[in-house]
Specification:
There is one protein chain. The longest helix is centred in the first third of the chain and has 27 residues. Strand 8 and strand 9 form a beta hairpin. By secondary structure, this protein is α/β, with parallel strands linked by helices. Helices cover about 45% and strands about 15% of the residues. The N terminus is likely disordered. It has one domain: TIM Barrel. The strands form two sheets. An eight-stranded parallel β-sheet has the order 7-6-5-4-3-2-1-10, with helices on one face. Strands 8-9-11 form a three-stranded antiparallel β-sheet. It is globular.
């Protein structure tokens, strides 16, 4: 091919630009790494009773790029036409949707037949997740009560793994992964790792809850280190803890108002699970005592203190007592709760943006 001088100059300029473009990400990434997604878990504003579109509006108002709807209640219909309209609305607002629901362990005290059998519940969630463009469907095993059932948490993990394996093709055919949460004191992070590994980590992962980690006697950062390689989604909040009469008392807080070193936390998070969204689920206003001085408490832990317990104790000894929520005098309790929840999540999102989370909008 013959090129005149101008054509040769243009060709060389274009070629050089293309070559530079192929090398740019290598050095640019070090100077400007991709920011973690930042979103809100709808349970943070549960008192509002909002539907899906109202939650999308609120995520937009908070300058989030993600919304985690962790129960099916906000959806006014499960028909594809309605769900596709919700997705279109979220897309228009620049909000990435993640979807979840509750227990799929058929033998857990937490399991309810609201959405049918465990299999039917899982199938429904997979279909909804696919239609809404959520890469994962978040579910739970149960709660601390499962640790006291016949066979303990190990038996409930086995039952959940059995349910998951029987439904693998349904999920993988739809291109949806299942995100199992460490929920309400049910599974220590290493117990959750066992569940994921046995079910199949190629399609089952984790919804990581930093607040729930403390209820299973874990330092939230140690919980992160154990679970990060499996994380698909998150429901995060801060925690204050302190020594109390029967052991330690824990209170969940807004981000930056507890004991977690979030800069350290997210530095590790960004290295190990950078594609997972950071979704904030504030559940503040109450305390829970972990009565580790009582023999009754350890009935839920027949094998004794879990791995990492000493780091949990060190974490819990650093804090100080904080007050529980009380509605202001003369204010309707429901309105007060709504204002309290919105205040917590707004401060949390602001804090997260200040430490570098969230994609520019």
């Amino acid at each position: 091919m013959q090129l005149d001088a101008m054509q040769r100059r243009d060709f060389l300029t274009t070629t050089a630009a293309a070559a530079a473009a192929t090398t740019l990400p290598a050095w640019a990434a070090k100077r400007a790494p991709k920011r973690l997604r930042l979103g809100v878990d709808n349970f943070a504003v549960r008192a509002m009773g909002w539907n899906a579109n109202q939650l999308i509006d609120y995520a937009k108002e908070l300058r989030c790029d993600s919304l985690f709807i962790t129960d099916l209640g906000p959806f006014e219909s499960f028909q594809d036409k309605y769900l596709k309209n919700v997705k279109a609305y979220a897309d228009d607002q620049g909000i990435k949707l993640y979807i979840g629901s509750w227990s799929i362990c058929p033998t857990s005290p937490s399991f309810k037949d609201t959405w049918g059998t465990a299999e039917e519940h899982l199938a429904l969630g997979i279909r909804i997740s696919k239609t809404l463009g959520s890469p994962a469907f978040r579910v739970i095993l149960g709660s601390r009560r499962d640790r006291l059932t016949e066979g303990g948490i190990e038996a409930r993990i086995d039952d959940t793994v059995k349910l998951l394996k029987a439904n693998k093709n349904r999920a993988t055919d739809a291109g949806i992964k299942i995100a199992m949460e460490n929920h309400a004191g049910d599974m220590h992070s290493l117990e959750l790792v066992r569940l994921v590994e046995e079910a199949g980590k190629d399609w089952v992962g984790v919804n990581m809850d930093s607040g729930n980690a403390v209820w299973t006697l874990e330092d939230p950062f140690e919980n992160l280190k154990n679970l990060a390689p499996y994380v698909l989604t998150t429901s995060l909040r801060d925690t204050m803890a302190w020594p109390s009469e029967n052991g330690y008392t824990a209170a969940w807080t807004a981000m930056g108002e507890g004991l977690v070193d979030w800069k350290q936390y997210f530095a590790h998070f960004a290295k190990v699970c950078p594609d997972a969204p950071v979704c904030i689920e504030t559940i503040s206003g109450f305390n829970r005592e972990l009565a580790v001085k009582s023999d009754e408490f350890w009935k839920a832990w027949p094998n004794g203190k879990p791995k990492g317990y000493k780091k949990f104790e060190a974490f819990a000894k650093r804090g100080k007592p904080i007050d529980t929520f009380k509605a202001p005098e003369g204010v309707d309790r429901k309105i007060a709760q709504q204002n309290f929840q919105k205040g917590d999540i707004a401060r949390s999102i602001k804090y997260c943006r200040e430490i570098g989370l969230g994609r520019d909008r």
